[in-house]
Amino acid sequence: MAATSYKFVLYKAERASPDESVARGREFYERMNRRRSVRDFSTEAPPRECLELAIKAAASAPSGAHRQPWRFVLVDDPGLKKAIREAAEEEERENYDNRFPPEWLQALEPLGTTGDKPFLEDAPYLVVVFKESYGVDEASDKITNYYVNESVGIACGLFIVALHTMGLVTLTHTPSPMGFLSELLNRPPNEKPYILFPVGYPAEGAMVPDLKRKSFEDVVQLNSGQ
User: Fold this and answer.
1) How many domains, in total, are found in the chain?
2) For every one of its 226 residues, what pLDDT tens digit does the chain have, with 9 covering 90 and above?
3) Has residue 10 been placed in a domain?
4) CATH number of the domain that residue 172 is part of
5) Range of the domain at 113
6) What is the DSSP string of the chain?
7) For 112, phi and psi rounded to 5 degrees?
8) The model scores a pTM over 0.85
C-alpha cells in the first residue's frame, strides 16, 4: 500500500517575549503541581463538552508516522459503569489476594488502596483509552502502527492536563488484566485497553495523600556550556 503524501503548510508559531514565556511557564508549572490523583468522586456530572474537549486535546498528541493509534471510549451509562466496576474489582481482588508480589503490596500500603473501586460507579464519566496495536484499512488489511505505547502515553498525558485545566479530576486506573474492557465495550481485536480514567469533580471532603515530588535536582541532569 502506497504511503500517503501530506501537503506541507507554513507553520506560524505564537512566539512570546522571553519574560512572557517564563511567566506562562511558571503559571503552568504551578497549576500542574497542584494536580493530584483523586479516588473520591462527586456524583455531580460536569458538562459533557468538557470531556469532549479533553479528548480533542488528547488527540492533538504527536504519534509515530501520524498513525494516531488511540481510541477514547466515553462511558456514562450507570449499568455499564456497574458492570465495569464488578469486573475490575474481581481482577483487583485477585491481584491483592494472590497475584501481587509482597514488595508491590508494601509499596501500595501507604496509599491505602484495596481491591474495592467505588469510584468506577461514583464518577459520572469513565473514559477508557485503547491503543491500536495495528490499523485496519477499508479493505480490512492490516496497517502497521509505530511507537504505539509512546504515542498513546503522550495522548493520555495531554488528556490529564486538559482535565486539570478545566477544574476536573481523574485517576490513572489500570486493573490487570484488562481484557474485560474489550469485551464489555465491544472493541475490535486490534484495540487493547491502555488506561481507564474515572472523570468528574472531587467529592466533598475528598482526601488525597500528602505526597512530595522529587526536587528539580533529582529529576534533571544539566549539561550546559555556560
Assistant:
1) 1
2) 456 688 999 999 889 999 999 999 999 999 999 999 999 999 999 999 999 999 999 999 999 999 999 999 999 999 999 999 999 999 999 999 999 999 999 999 999 999 999 999 999 999 999 999 999 999 999 999 999 999 999 999 999 999 999 999 999 999 989 999 999 999 999 999 999 999 999 999 999 999 999 999 999 999 887 6
3) no
4) 3.40.109.10
5) 38-203
6) -PPPPPPP------PPPHHHHHHHHHHHHHHHHT------B-SPPPPHHHHHHHHHHHTTS--BTT---EEEEEE--HHHHHHHHHHHHHHHHHIIIIIS-HHHHHHHGGGT--S--THHHHSSEEEEEEEESEEE-TTS-EEE-BSHHHHHHHHHHHHHHHHHHTT-EE--B--SS-HHHHHHTT--TTEEEEEEEEEEPBPTT-------PPPHHHH-------
7) 75, 20
8) yes
